[in-house]
Amino acid sequence: MAFRTTAVVCSSLKKWAYNLSGFNKYGLLRDDCLYENEDVQEALRRLPAHVVDERNFRIIRAVQLSLQKTILPKEEWTKYEEDKLYLTPIVEQVKKERLEREEWEKNY
């Protein structure tokens, strides 16, 4: 019983923090906000072109809304349940490959 209550509270807290972050009011996904270091750039290169185009559209729209000092209508906000991590798994794979390559170069 306590575990179930804790899970509900944890889920509610995650949704609250997600909505408080503010990027969803511009229609952005969590992975749209990643800092573009070398690993993220490599992961973006591996994505299909249409996914990169969708990401670029969301970012450009968010910048435009920010410059206009406005946000999207509430029905167009990204919802917590709809936000999917499309880039994070690829970034983790790229990091793993990079670390493996660095380890290989160091030892051999």
TrEMBL record:
Gene Ontology biological process: mitochondrial electron transport, ubiquinol to cytochrome c
Location of this chain's protein in the cell: Mitochondrion inner membrane
Major place of residence: mitochondrion
UniProt keyword annotations, A-Z: Electron transport, Membrane, Mitochondrion, Mitochondrion inner membrane, Respiratory chain, Transport
Membrane topology, as annotated: Peripheral membrane protein
Record-level GO cellular component terms: mitochondrial inner membrane
Pfam families: UCR_14kD (PF02271)
Domain of life per record: Eukaryota
Oligomeric form and interacting partners: Component of the ubiquinol-cytochrome c oxidoreductase (cytochrome b-c1 complex, complex III, CIII), a multisubunit enzyme composed of 11 subunits. The complex is composed of 3 respiratory subunits cytochrome b, cytochrome c1 and Rieske protein UQCRFS1, 2 core protein subunits UQCRC1/QCR1 and UQCRC2/QCR2, and 6 low-molecular weight protein subunits UQCRH/QCR6, UQCRB/QCR7, UQCRQ/QCR8, UQCR10/QCR9, UQCR11/QCR10 and subunit 9, the cleavage product of Rieske protein UQCRFS1.
Similarity field: Belongs to the UQCRB/QCR7 family.
Role, per record: Component of the ubiquinol-cytochrome c oxidoreductase, a multisubunit transmembrane complex that is part of the mitochondrial electron transport chain which drives oxidative phosphorylation.
Protein name in the entry: Cytochrome b-c1 complex subunit 7
Species this protein is from: Parnassius apollo (Apollo butterfly)
